[in-house]
Design a protein that fits this description.
The chain has 13 helices and 19 strands. The chain has 416 residues and is of the alpha/beta class. The chain has two domains: 181 residues, 3-Layer(aba) Sandwich (Rossmann fold), CATH 3.40.50.300; 191 residues, Nucleotidyltransferase, domain 5 (2-Layer Sandwich), CATH 3.30.420. The strands form four sheets. Strands 3-4-5-2-6-7-1-8 form an eight-stranded mixed sheet, with helices on one face. Strand 6, helix 4 and strand 7 form a beta-alpha-beta unit. Helix 1 packs across helix 2. The termini are far apart.
């Protein structure tokens, strides 16, 4: 399908992004989720209007709460009717929208429907139910709605921006029924993403990367006391080098099974740690590591510190011309390394290091299942790039073990 699908020259405004192609085939569930600016709602509205212009469809536009028609997608549909040049095909009324082909768009709040037998009965003839802002829909509402949309061939469409990992629709997207069409889509798949929104996106990435991941990348909220690096890191297009810096330092983590192989380049300036480059590949064979490492500037001319548990990989990389040395681990080495990371005034991650940024947001302490208390043990996940950074800074971490006064860069300072 082309980047923008068009019906003809007269309806050139009826355009759809490429990611909608799977949603054009029949499926009981069609779920699109992700961050702001992806065009999910507009694309769903256009798909429904195009279908309703051709054949008689009864479309229910639902959400958890609808105090008035203004809370619904009624205005969005009306706007898209005008934008698509379909004014002659639809009549927009105060509380519904009628199509010349016999279609009708209805708008309801689910919470008020659950205990109303007459409203539930009226839903049985629905062809398509579109749930907008699905992240707000309760399990009770879903449990009531789904068996009510029972017409042969009927479909349930859900669009939403993820909020909490426990939200019912998010769990449905992660574990969909067989045959469901599920797609995560973000701003970078919207061919008409406006420059005004892009400026907002870039600003949030620089100033609040945790919130950025939620708002723009469609991730669930993760800002909690359990985050290992909470309040310490930010994203900025930092220079690859600075005068009077210490480094650069290189660290690698070898991938096992489902874990990625990683390499990070960093340096220290003042009391700030700068992470400038990353290499990341899932399922990388040992023979392919040299090519992966070559994507990071200077990897062949500087020492790379790596996990000493795989001496055969270190030997292979040395034969390939890399100066790799093993870093010992000991009980408490991870916690000591984290303390050193948190001793910096700030950790600045270049925006091109997308996997390192994602791990910074997800790297967490364990949380007690019953009490919600944050425990002193670190979860062994989302840590592959941070293990690489710890290895890169191994001499500094070793110094931390010997004394409570550490030397960071060329200045002496206390490590908390």
């Amino acid at each position: 399908m082309p980047e923008a699908a068009r019906q003809d020259d007269a309806t050139a405004r009826v355009m759809l992004p490429r990611w909608v192609a799977p949603f054009m085939r029949p499926a009981r569930y069609k779920i699109a989720y992700g961050g702001r600016g992806s065009g999910k709602s507009v694309s769903f509205a256009r798909l429904l209007l195009m279908a309703a212009a051709e054949r008689p469809l009864r479309v229910l536009c639902a959400r958890e709460l609808q105090n008035s028609i203004a809370d619904s997608v009624h205005q969005l549909l009306a706007d898209q009717i005008r934008a698509m040049g379909l004014d002659g095909w639809f009549t927009v009324r105060e509380k519904d929208i009628l199509g010349r082909a016999g279609s009708r768009f209805l708008f309801k709040g689910l919470r008020g429907t659950r205990n109303d037998a007459s409203q539930l009965k009226s839903l049985e003839g629905v062809d398509i139910c579109w749930i907008e802002e699905g992240q707000t829909v309760s399990k009770a509402s879903l449990d009531t709605l789904v068996p009510t949309i029972r017409k042969p061939g009927s479909e349930i469409w859900i669009s939403f921006n993820p909020d909490q990992e426990t939200d019912p629709v998010y769990q449905l997207a992660l574990n969909p029924p067989e045959g469901a069409v599920v797609r995560k889509v973000n701003w970078d798949e919207n061919p008409w993403f406006p420059p005004e929104l892009d400026a907002e996106r870039r600003h949030m990435l620089r100033t609040d990367p945790d919130l950025y991941a939620h708002v723009w990348e469609g991730e669930c909220r993760q800002v909690t006391d359990a985050q290992v690096l909470r309040g310490k890191w930010r994203v900025a297009d930092c220079p690859d080098a600075m005068p009077d810096m210490d480094g650069p330092y290189y660290g690698a983590d070898f991938g096992f099974a489902r874990d990625p192989s990683t390499l990070n380049r960093c340096y220290i300036h003042g009391n700030t740690l700068y992470i400038t480059h990353e290499a990341h590949r899932l399922g990388c064979e040992v023979v392919d590591l040299p090519a992966l490492y070559d994507t990071v500037p200077g990897s062949r001319s500087h020492t790379i510190r790596a996990d000493s548990a795989r001496p055969e990989i270190i030997s292979h990389l040395r034969r390939e011309g890399f100066r790799v040395t093993g870093v010992d681990k000991w009980p408490g080495s991870v916690e000591t390394g984290v303390n050193v990371l948190r001793s910096f005034d700030a950790i600045v991650i270049h925006s091109r290091c997308r996997h390192t940024i994602e791990e910074a947001r997800r790297y967490s302490y364990k949380v007690d299942r019953l009490t919600g208390d944050v425990l002193p043990q670190i979860v062994d996940a989302w840590n592959h790039h941070w293990d690489a950074v710890r290895y890169a800074l191994a001499p500094l971490i070793r110094r931390r073990m010997r004394t409570s006064t550490g030397i960071v860069g060329r200045r002496r300072r206390t490590i908390a």
